């Protein structure tokens, strides 16, 4: 072949080769050396427990054989994510005891919201560790972990490497409590919907702040069907006309879907504004709703009943929650007991999912079929 011909062929082949290489590299599994998680009880691995007292027995009974800072009988979706990425379970940033942050940190606390609340935990059950505070903590962690790491020794060995902040997976599961917060203040559905854009503006702000600090891979869960949770259905009056085919309270799920629609829009905007970031939107709502609606088909029972609790239509009583005790003839008796078989139940304590449900949910999200774009967890560092 003539040299110039060869060059021509090369010039034709080059774009092909580049696009081929790009599509191949997009299939190379990401090496996430760490996870930094932000959220509420759906992904709290010990934050609220560390600051405000342990979620006591029977929490943790199915896997950790004792309380483990989780509002669950065992592992959460974030635990299954860590397992699948070959990383240890995340220590809570707030947990001063035995924490190891070599492979990430968890800033989530149960009851957290995106927007800072004007109530105390005692008044409303909402955590003061809202998303802005979680970001302040992350910011502090990012800076100081490196000072401590440089000093070496025991404490230095518990910190992540500087370069891991750019390579890490940043996970989010937050928003549910912002929606219930309005309802619990007796707001109407329209009033709750009216502040959803503000929630997402604040959410976007913190994603951008993390991006400014080098974060590139974002894995964002949408919010679940909050109208299917016993603690919501028990507290807010639900009329028969509002109950849907799954037995859930339709208006609250409508608001969740509205939030999710706006969240997806926010993720699309972020993709435009942050061309170097890979943002994956994960539709956990559809997975959870499908699980609850077709519980029997999937081998679960009583989708709207809490496993751990006491009394009422949903085995849920706000005053006698999971793990609560009463005095009977001078003796302490646990009345908020666990059910016989948590592995066939979906709801753990009225507000949270069981380990069995979390595993089921994880198995659906891991391959990317419920994600936008449709990329599996292990490829979530690639921008599409
Ligand atoms: C912290 O975690 C890392 C990674 O899992 C491990 O190698 C190290 O031994 C742990 N440090 C302590 C003190 O347990
Ligand atoms: C808390 O109060 C401030 C000041 O009045 C207000 O701007 C903010 O929206 C309030 N937050 C919530 C969640 O209602
Ligand atoms: C909401 O309404 C209920 C029932 O009318 C009332 O008991 C409660 O105090 C109200 N809550 C707030 C925060 O206004």
UniProtKB/TrEMBL annotation:
Signal sequence span per UniProt? 1-26
Instruction: Name the InterPro entries for this protein.
Output: GDSL, SGNH_hydro_sf, SGNH_plant_lipase-like
Citing just one GO molecular function, the answer is: hydrolase activity
Pfam families found in the cross-reference section:
Lipase_GDSL
**Domain of life from the UniProt record:** Eukaryota
The protein's UniProt keywords, in alphabetical order, are: Glycoprotein, Hydrolase, Signal
Tell me yes or no: is Hydrolase among this UniProt entry's keywords: yes
Q: Which PANTHER family match?
A: ALPHA-L-FUCOSIDASE 3, ZINC FINGER FYVE DOMAIN CONTAINING PROTEIN
Q: Which family does it belong to?
A: Belongs to the 'GDSL' lipolytic enzyme family.
Q: What is this protein called?
A: Alpha-L-fucosidase
């Amino acid at each position: 072949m003539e040299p110039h011909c060869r060059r021509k062929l090369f010039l034709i082949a080059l774009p092909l080769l580049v696009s081929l290489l790009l599509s191949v590299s997009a299939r190379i599994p990401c090496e996430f050396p760490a996870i930094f998680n932000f959220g509420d009880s759906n992904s709290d691995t010990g934050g609220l427990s560390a600051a405000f007292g342990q979620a006591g027995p029977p929490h943790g009974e199915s896997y950790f054989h004792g309380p483990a800072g989780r509002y669950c009988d065992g592992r959460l979706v974030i635990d299954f994510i860590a397992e699948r990425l070959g990383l240890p379970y995340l220590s809570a940033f707030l947990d001063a005891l035995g924490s190891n942050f070599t492979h990430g940190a968890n800033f989530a606390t149960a009851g957290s919201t995106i927007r800072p609340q004007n109530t105390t935990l005692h008044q409303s059950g909402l955590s003061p560790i809202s998303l802005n505070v979680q970001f302040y903590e992350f910011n502090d962690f990012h800076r100081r972990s490196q000072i401590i790491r440089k000093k070496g020794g025991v404490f230095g060995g518990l910190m992540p490497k500087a370069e891991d902040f750019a390579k890490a997976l940043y996970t989010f599961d937050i928003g549910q409590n912002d929606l219930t917060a309005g309802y619990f203040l007796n707001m109407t559905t329209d009033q709750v919907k009216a502040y959803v854009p503000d929630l997402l503006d604040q959410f976007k702000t913190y994603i951008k702040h993390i991006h400014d600090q080098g974060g590139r891979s974002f894995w964002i869960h949408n919010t679940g069907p909050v109208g299917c949770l016993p603690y919501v259905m028990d507290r807010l009056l639900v009329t028969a006309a509002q109950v849907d085919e799954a037995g859930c309270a339709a208006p609250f799920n409508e608001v969740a879907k509205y939030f999710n629609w706006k969240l997806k829009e926010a993720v699309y905007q972020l993709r435009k504004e942050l061309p170097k970031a890979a943002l994956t939107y994960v539709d956990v709502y559809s997975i959870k709703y499908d699980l609850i609606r077709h519980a029997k088909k999937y081998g679960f029972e009583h989708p709207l009943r809490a496993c751990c609790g006491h009394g009422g239509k949903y085995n849920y009583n706000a005053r006698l929650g999971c793990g609560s005790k009463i005095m009977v003839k001078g003796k302490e008796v646990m009345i908020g007991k666990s059910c016989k078989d948590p592995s066939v139940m979906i709801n753990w304590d009225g507000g949270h999912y069981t380990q069995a449900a979390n595993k089921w949910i994880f198995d659906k999200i891991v391959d990317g079929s419920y994600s936008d774009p449709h990329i599996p967890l292990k490829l979530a560092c690639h921008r599409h």
